[in-house]
Amino acid sequence: MKILITGANGRIGQHLIQKLNTKGHFLILTSIEEKPRRVFGNTVYYQADLTKPEQIQKVVSKEKPDAVIHLGGLLPDQCQKNYDLAYKINTQATKDLAKICADNQTKRFIFSSTSAVYPQNSKTALKESDANPQSNYGKTKFLAEQELERIAPTSKMQVIIFRIFNIYGPGFEESLINKLKRARKSKEQINLYELDKFARDYIHIDDVIDFLIKALTLQEKQIFNVINLGTSRAFYNSDLINLAAKLGWELDYKIVPLKDESIVFADNLKTQEVFPGKSFRKISL
Q1: Same domain, 70 and 143
Q2: What domain range includes position 189?
Q3: Is the distance from CB of 192 to CB of 239 less than 8 angstroms?
Q4: 79-117, pLDDT tens digit by residue?
Q5: Does the model's pTM come out above 0.85?
Q6: Distance CA 118, CA 83 (A)
Q7: What's the DSSP call for residue 248?
Q8: In the Cβ-directed half-sphere of 106, how many Cα atoms lie within 13 Å?
Q9: At a CB cut-off of 8 Å and minimum separation 6, what does 66 contact?
């Protein structure tokens, strides 16, 4: 299979292409950076700016990918600083890419969205119908989803959207789990939101990669589908601290007060229906 991967130099991209290279696919990699961060096997690399459709058109029309995994986008912190830029990269560029791919007979378009499309203070598991983004990042990703929903029915290109929850594992240094691991070694104090008021749904990067790859050959009848990628467990800061204590870790942390609870975790019933038998790794420190 010929697979186009945008944002190939990103953290998810680097994990993904390394795994796909073991499966015999031909990978078409794009990034705004001049050179690939690592050299892989059966691949071709293009420096391309997602906000410049003519550059993307050149790549897609030449390579004719069977499938696209769209990972490129603007990070949350940058989105908060500049909504217009966030919209241009996360929304408009996604729309342009999807149209170009559809016009070039791409069969499947896989889009990495985010749990930021949901309210960040829910006490119940979040279903795919619960979207209500508050941040610029969440808003522009959700708008991109809506653009894809409009494009899919008028093309022969199947669209699968993954709303990915909090990733941890190698390369995700900003993850709270990774921060705790570093703090254990460095003995530095870290800040933690109130232990029983802050909870997130942590998914290991290897699980994310498994789902992205499975989606390439998924026998899916729907032309457009939105699927949560989360474990369906609200893992509180207190859970992490208790787990660290069981391992004998001595952590120095400072509690940061929260006015309201901040709880975000997935309802993954649909995930289980679409990917029967796929389980998630248990959180480990």
Answers
A1: yes
A2: 172-201+233-265
A3: no
A4: 999 999 999 999 999 999 999 999 999 999 999 999 999
A5: yes
A6: 18
A7: T
A8: 32
A9: 1, 2, 3, 106, 107, 108
